[in-house]
Design brief:
This protein is of the alpha+beta class and 581 residues long. The chain has 17 helices and 16 strands.
Length: 581
């Protein structure tokens, strides 16, 4: 049985309800481009909202992390990965959480106890040593020498303030060497496979820590890493998660995996991630900003490495690989079935576009070397940044003319570019429980009013395609086949402000998904919602499925003002708006 199925079945037997995997593009969370962890979609419930499925939850969540993109190509890193998780929202705590983790690993996955070790929180000036977790592990048969105490690695908090607490991490000895009797977390042969976070305390802005009245458990276990461990391979790409994809790349390239590992891993990883991004209900297309930029970068990097393997990039190589990936995962993720053609078109179109860019790059290269001089770092970086030329290709072409490339200059320019990108996107990768301030809550409610107003002013068939909220503004994407006229923008703005001034009450009601749809409730991504949903109503003007949070009355919002209306992608327009006091 698949690891995901084993895990879900186990926790259902322990009284958990399975919740659906959220889309990879988070809704109304400006802190990240993608869902980066299994807990991220559950933030409102970890903060105290009631979950319609109850207090014991489990799932497998699609996650994307791109902050270590340059590490892809080794044996363990992936941009897309699946996270198994189980949660207690004020229900069970450390005792059951640790016991069930241990039971699943040793009794259901048959991992020998002697290959396991754990870390626990050592304690600091504010929070004591986690004696309870330590003693529980001892009682289960983990020896004292296999329980390491740390501070930094065993304490979790989302930001500077908020819910926080100790965690305990479970490690597996991934080596054929003799297992050391004493566990050293710095020994790379020990690989972390599971993390149990205990949200036990609250840290305020003054740095004071108090015990939470309602404590939560959040756990996470990576599918790819655990599968590789269970199958006894030290390279994730040799596990059943990847083996058939790698074999197909070997067949297409007519080359063996051995000796070509880096390029084959990058192609396999990047195309899998691209499949999930382009299948997401948010309708992401390759572009030069945000999620679209990541999608473009992944596809172009995969194509460059296909060229390195002498794959004919004008063939349907990416279609073959993508279809295999779609078939591997469509049992678990419905959007892969619904959007298969979209995925294949997105990948093919970007490949064609990039091939044209490469041709332009070759012409640019000829200009750079027309005087038969060595290539400086700035020119090499421009070929890379503007025309997608990998430095290896520039070096190869230069060497054919007996020219040299200033690699050090290129690397300096590349590091400078990385630093700028990191600074510009710092806010995009914060994550955590720090969002949903009072201002953001107002903007959240304003998006509902804007959605309703556009249906009245523009077209009743207008639907939300995405949104992004910060403490400074709201951004709202909607289906529309034309640029809004000045009159349409003015009428939309006036209608939203009319509803605000009327002081409409905002109410919420829980009901079945079927009841919500039958009642006419608006819904952006119907497949992401559980069977029991929350519908927020704003007077008689708006009814939407939503996780919240919202203001109590529209008179709290201030004055609504549209600042910009522009194209987002084909058939999708974007409004940026603010609320003024």
């Amino acid at each position: 049985m698949n690891l995901k199925d084993l895990y879900i079945n186990f926790f259902i037997e322990k009284g958990h309800k399975q919740i659906p995997s959220s889309p990879v593009v988070p809704e109304n969370d400006p802190s990240v481009l993608f869902n980066t962890a299994g807990m991220q979609p559950l933030i409102p419930y970890l903060m105290g909202e009631t979950h319609p499925y109850g207090t014991r939850l489990c799932d497998y969540q699609k996650c994307i992390r791109t902050n270590d993109l340059d590490a892809i190509g080794d044996t363990t890193h992936h941009t897309f990965f699946e996270m198994l998780g189980n949660w207690s929202l004020g229900d069970y705590f450390k005792n059951e959480s640790i016991e069930w983790s241990f039971e699943f690993l040793t009794k259901h996955l048959n991992i020998p106890v002697e290959k396991l070790a754990v870390t626990v929180f050592a304690g600091n000036d504010l929070i004591p040593f986690d004696q309870e977790s330590h003693d529980k592990w001892l009682s289960l048969g983990i020896k004292e020498k296999r329980i390491a105490r740390t501070v930094e690695d065993n304490f979790w908090i989302a930001g500077e303030t908020g819910p926080c607490g100790p965690d305990t991490e479970i490690f597996y000895f991934r080596s054929d060497d003799e297992i050391p009797s004493t566990f050293d977390p710095e020994d790379e042969r020990w690989v972390e496979i599971w993390n149990n976070v205990f949200m036990q305390y609250y840290k305020d802005s003054e740095g004071n820590v108090t015990e939470l009245p309602k404590k939560n458990v959040d756990t996470g276990m990576g599918v790819e890493r655990t599968t590789a461990i269970l199958e006894g391979v030290n390279d994730n790409y040799l596990s059943s998660v990847w083996k058939d994809v790698i074999e197909l790349i070997e067949k297409i390239s007519n080359l063996p995996y051995e000796g070509n590992e880096t390029s084959m891993r990058i192609i396999a990883d990047h195309l899998r991630t691209a499949v999930f991004i382009s299948a997401d209900p948010a309708g992401i297309k390759p572009s030069n900003t945000d999620q679209g930029y990541i999608l473009r970068r992944l596809l172009r990097r995969a194509i460059r490495h296909a060229k390195k393997l002498n794959i004919d990039v004008n063939s349907d190589f990416e279609q073959q690989i993508s279809k295999l990936i779609l078939n591997k995962y469509n049992k678990y993720y419905k959007e892969l079935v619904d959007n298969e053609q979209v995925v294949l078109e997105v990948l093919n179109n970007e490949k064609i576009k990039f091939n044209r860019t490469l041709e332009k790059g070759l012409r640019e290269f000829e200009k750079v070397v027309r005087n038969n001089e060595d290539i400086d770092g700035t020119s090499a970086f421009r070929l890379f940044d503007t025309y997608g030329f990998p430095i290896e290709l520039t070096i190869e072409l230069a060497s054919e003319r007996n020219l040299k490339v200033d690699e050090e200059g290129f690397n300096n320019k590349f590091k400078e570019h990385q630093e700028k990108s990191r600074t510009a996107s710092a806010g995009k990768f914060k994550g955590g429980l720090s969002g949903n301030s009072e201002v953001e809550t107002k903007y959240h409610t304003a998006t509902h009013l804007l959605n309703a107003a556009l249906k009245v002013v523009v077209n009743k068939d207008v639907h939300q395609k995405g949104s992004n909220i910060t403490s400074d503004r709201l951004r709202f994407d909607f289906s529309c086949d034309h640029k809004l006229t000045d009159e349409e923008k003015q009428k939309t703005e006036e209608l939203v402000n009319k509803w605000i001034s009327e002081g409409l009450e905002v109410t919420k009601k829980e009901m079945s998904k079927e009841e919500a749809i039958a009642s006419g409730a608006e819904c952006m991504f119907i497949e992401k919602y559980p069977d029991i949903v929350t519908v927020y109503s704003i007077g008689d003007v708006s009814h939407e499925l939503c996780g919240g949070p919202h203001v109590k009355n529209t008179n709290e919002l201030g004055t609504f003002k549209i600042k910009k209306e522009e194209a987002s992608s084909a058939g999708v327009r974007r409004i940026k708006a603010i609320l003024e006091d």
